[in-house]
Design goal:
The complex is a heterodimer of chains A (471) and B (387). In chain A, 25% of the residues lie in helices and 30% in strands. Chain A is α+β, with helices and mostly antiparallel strands. In chain A, helix 2 crosses helix 3 and helix 6 runs parallel beside helix 7. Chain B is of the alpha/beta class. Helix content of chain B is 35%, strand content 18%. Chain B contains 14 helices and twelve strands. In chain B, the strands form two sheets. A ten-stranded mixed sheet of chain B has the order 3-2-4-7-1-8-12-11-9-10, with helices on both faces. In chain B, helix 1 crosses helix 2, helix 3 crosses helix 14 and helix 6 crosses helix 11. Classes of the chains: A alpha+beta (471), B alpha/beta (387). Strand 18 of chain A pairs antiparallel with strand 5 of chain B, so a sheet runs across the interface.
């Protein structure tokens, strides 16, 4: 039976108080704050971050597949899972797939992964989900949504067993976006909740409990995805589940991230779960999915995994709505697009996406990018390909006011980094205050979108100061 | 290895006014510089047997036509030389080898750039790779300043001393881009371009052209400048990594390319103690930090002493070595392909005692230095008077 071997989450560093959004438009404020992806982030980069969190301490080459779930894929035509798998340095002889179109896509992917593992076609599959949805400016949706990502590793072995998969395919036009729409549209919320969300969630929840002969009182947690605590409470009430056992749906801290919500909540529940705990998971969107998670042993904490709590604790507040509008590119600006080459990008996949370097077998120098002739000892073609570390310290830096030929008032830090274990790279800094950069500062390397040259997403690596957890 | 020492001579030099020359194009500039050099040499276009032209931006694909077309040098060779900011001096180097070999008697080395036609806010940056690319030129050089501040305790004020000195010199030169002295305070407090480099730490974005007519000494002896032609004492060029920011052994405290080119040049010229023997140097101060490091890399002072060397006045026009008596790139301007040739025009006129700006007294030996890419290439040329 398929198990959960690991889990992970990602929340962008930046949050915006909903009051700031309300002030910008002169509309009523929803309580709390929402997460906002940086300008260089999208669903694909956030999926890489959550996948990386999930794989802390796990060799990516041991995994047989990657499923990516989202409604906001950066490509309509071109698979994202393959890019994510490369950035996570996974093997190429694996099964990759994008699951999209529905807010339920994360559990659709999770179930497909469990089926693959149960059938024996894969030993383990990493499921990552991310969304970066846009509410129309001035609308409540703008305040309610948030950006984030979640991940779960489905495997033959692991501390948590998955069982009782149940689905319902209730067609209802709840929330949607046509191909030509930028912002989400929705059915009348009250009616959608009553006839769509609550009805289908309760239906699958009951079916799972019946199928697995579990009484609501036996559950340690209800991981019930919901756009707000009130709807979640209604589902719990209908199922006879104690409201105190509900996993937080991140309404006040992140906002509704869409597809990844269920995996982020699951990560939050697994962080605190103990051997013997049973969790009821219900996910919703054009119908609903449900299943039971039972822990046969404790999850051992993985070094380097931040999980949901770690990501909730590390945050920076955006000063105002303008910052949000800038990050989400709500205002059209003239962009300078540099020269690009899909051919070069493809040929250099191992250095660009896999972030591999070289080590000279003659003199031991760690080299990046990988040269034919060693730049230290000039030996030809004696370079072995190696993985480079994703952390380093600043050797020197500048705060550059010239970005793509334009003068920018907030400078972009450019950092020369000495990587742990060798190798030196030159990366732009993101997610940080330029004034805090100093020689010796620790930085972590993160996957971001650099630019759109040659009309494709030129993903690469940037770095950011290792965020400190807020107390 | 052979030597160029005393084998080639400069017959004549020409240089345009440097600056934001909106109303002139590359044709105007190269015609003005080349005709001034030919007039100075007492030759005509027909006497020019071959031409080398330094030019970097923009990447037009104009090739040898950059010089051959405006000067109508048809029926004979012209070669465009592109070697980052050393393009002009490398054009001169190749021209020297051509006359030294005896294949040609009289050749033209020139350089031209119309930077303002490409854009006014910094050099275009394109390293050819979609995602692994360098940053702006100020940012690349700022990486050295940051590390030097950390290692040597230098400050913004140390950088400002370079700007103040070069503006003082440039203000005296009628062909310089900027002709206004500045205060230390103004330099320190100027708007930031790439921390810690501000506006007065950066050279100007300038248009301009410069040209030299080159021959062998036996011909120069019978020419217009028969009594005061300059001779080549050394002509060295060295490359280093184009990707220093990826190189763990690069210390960001100086430029190995300059150190290597200087060593080659001093050996070629037979110079044992550069600080004592050289009277003036036009060095590549694209940024203030670069001039400080050049003084160290060219062995004018010890490593770590560059800021002190300049602060104490050793680089002043009446100091130990007059560094950038023209005002340098900082003040004279830096039209990339023209700069190397412009420096050698300046050094020649200093040696001849006819400097247009501040004249260095009793100048007998002068040095020109280019650095580019940002540390990919360095060129060091030493000129002197005939024995």
């Amino acid at each position: 039976m398929a198990k959960i071997a690991s889990f992970g989450a990602y929340i962008p560093l930046f949050r915006l108080s909903r009051q700031e959004m309300a002030n910008a438009w002169g509309v009523p404020a929803v309580p709390g704050e929402r997460a906002v992806a940086n300008a260089d982030e999208d669903s694909l980069t956030m999926a890489v971050a959550a996948g990386s969190d999930c794989l802390a301490g796990i060799d990516p080459s041991t995994i047989d597949g990657l499923y990516f779930a989202t409604t906001t894929a950066p490509y309509d035509e071109k698979q994202c899972a393959g890019v994510i798998a490369a950035a996570l340095d996974m093997r190429t002889d694996i099964n990759t797939a994008d699951f999209t179109g529905s807010l339920r896509a994360a559990t659709t992917a999770l179930r497909a992964a469990a089926d693959a593992v149960d059938s024996g076609s894969a030993g383990s599959i990493l499921v990552v989900a991310a969304d970066c949805r846009l509410g129309e400016p001035e609308s409540m949706w703008e305040q309610l949504l948030g950006d984030g990502a979640g991940a779960v590793l489905i495997s033959k072995q692991g501390p948590a067993t998955l069982r009782g998969f149940t689905s319902t395919a209730g067609e209802q036009v709840g929330v949607w976006r046509r191909s030509e729409d930028r912002y989400i549209r929705s059915f009348e919320a009250k009616a959608e909740n009553r006839y769509g969300y609550v009805k289908s969630a309760v239906q699958v929840g009951k079916a799972v409990l019946d199928k697995e002969s579990v009484a609501p009182g036996d559950l340690a947690k209800g991981v019930i995805s919901a756009g707000d605590p009130r709807s979640q409470g209604t589902v719990a009430g209908n199922l006879g589940l104690d409201g105190g056992k509900l996993q937080d749906c991140l309404f006040l801290s992140v906002g509704n991230p869409g597809v990844p919500l269920v995996l982020m909540m699951l990560a939050g529940a697994l962080e605190q779960a103990k051997a013997g705990d049973k969790l009821l998971v219900i996910n919703n969107g054009d119908g609903a999915d449900g299943f039971l998670v039972e822990l046969t042993e404790d999850f051992t904490p993985a070094a380097g995994r931040k999980g949901l709590i770690g990501h909730l604790l590390q945050k920076r507040m955006l000063p105002n709505y303008t910052a949000y509008a800038s990050f989400r590119k709500l205002m059209k600006r003239d962009e300078v697009v540099p020269r690009g080459s899909a051919v070069t990008y493809w040929r250099d996949t191992n250095i660009v996406l896999n972030f591999h370097g070289g080590r000279c077998t003659k003199c031991g120098a760690v080299l990046y990018p990988i040269p034919r002739v060693c730049e230290e000892c000039a030996t030809k073609d004696q370079i072995e390909e190696i993985k480079l570390a994703k952390t380093g310290s600043v050797y020197t830096f500048t705060l550059d006011h010239l970005e793509a030929g334009k003068y920018v008032s907030v400078p972009v830090p450019r950092l020369v980094l000495d990587l742990e274990g060798g190798g030196r790279v030159f990366l732009s800094m993101t997610d940080g205050d330029p004034q805090e950069v100093e020689i010796g500062m620790s930085a972590e390397i993160v996957f971001r979108c650099l630019h759109e040259a040659s009309s494709f997403h030129n993903y690469y690596w940037k770095c950011r100061p290792v965020p400190e957890a807020a107390s | 290895m052979g030597s160029i020492k005393d084998k080639t001579a400069i017959m004549g030099v020409g240089c345009t006014k440097f600056g934001e020359l909106w109303e002139k194009d590359a044709e105007d500039l190269i015609v003005e510089a080349a005709y001034e050099a030919m007039e100075d040499a007492g030759v005509t276009p027909d006497d020019i047997e071959a031409t080398w032209v330094g030019n970097l931006y923009d990447f037009t694909g104009l090739s040898g036509s950059v010089a051959a077309e405006p000067l109508k040098l048809f029926g004979k060779p012209t070669t465009r030389v592109e070697n980052f900011c050393a393009s002009g001096m490398d054009a001169f180097r190749n021209a020297c080898f051509a006359v030294a070999s005896g294949v040609y008697d009289v050749v033209l080395a020139c350089g031209v750039e119309k930077l303002l036609d490409v854009g006014g806010s910094g050099l275009p940056v394109d390293m050819g790779h979609p995602v692994m690319r360098g940053a702006s030129a100020p940012a690349m050089f700022a990486l050295l300043a940051t590390r030097c501040f950390h290692e040597y305790g230098w400050t913004k004020e140390d950088l400002a001393h370079v700007a103040v000195k070069n503006h003082k010199n440039g203000a005296l030169h009628p062909k310089a881009h900027f002709r206004r002295p500045i205060t230390l305070e103004a330099a320190v407090n100027a708007p930031m371009i790439a921390w810690p480099l501000g506006r007065f730490d950066s050279c100007g974005m300038s248009d301009g052209a410069a040209a030299l007519v080159i021959t062998r000494p036996e011909i120069a002896k019978k020419s217009k400048h028969k009594d005061d032609y300059a001779v080549t004492k050394a002509n060295a060029l060295a490359m280093n990594s184009f990707l220093p920011m990826y190189r763990a052994s690069f210390d960001w405290l100086g430029f190995p390319a300059t150190q290597a080119a200087a060593k080659l040049a001093y050996e070629e010229a037979g110079i044992k103690s550069p600080a004592d023997e050289i009277d003036l140097a036009e060095v590549h101060d694209c940024f203030t930090i670069t001039e400080i490091l050049n003084c160290q890399d060219l062995q004018f002072c010890e490593r770590g002493e560059g800021a002190k060397f300049i602060r104490e006045g050793h680089a002043d026009v009446d100091g130990t070595i007059a560094v950038n008596p023209s005002g340098g790139l900082k003040c004279f301007g830096h039209p990339i392909g023209a700069t190397g040739c412009r420096m050698l025009c300046e050094v020649t006129k200093q040696l001849q005692g006819r400097a247009e700006g501040a004249q260095v007294k009793n100048a007998r030996l002068g040095l020109g230095h280019n650095l580019g890419g940002p540390g990919s290439v360095s060129s060091v040329t030493i000129l002197g008077l005939p024995e």
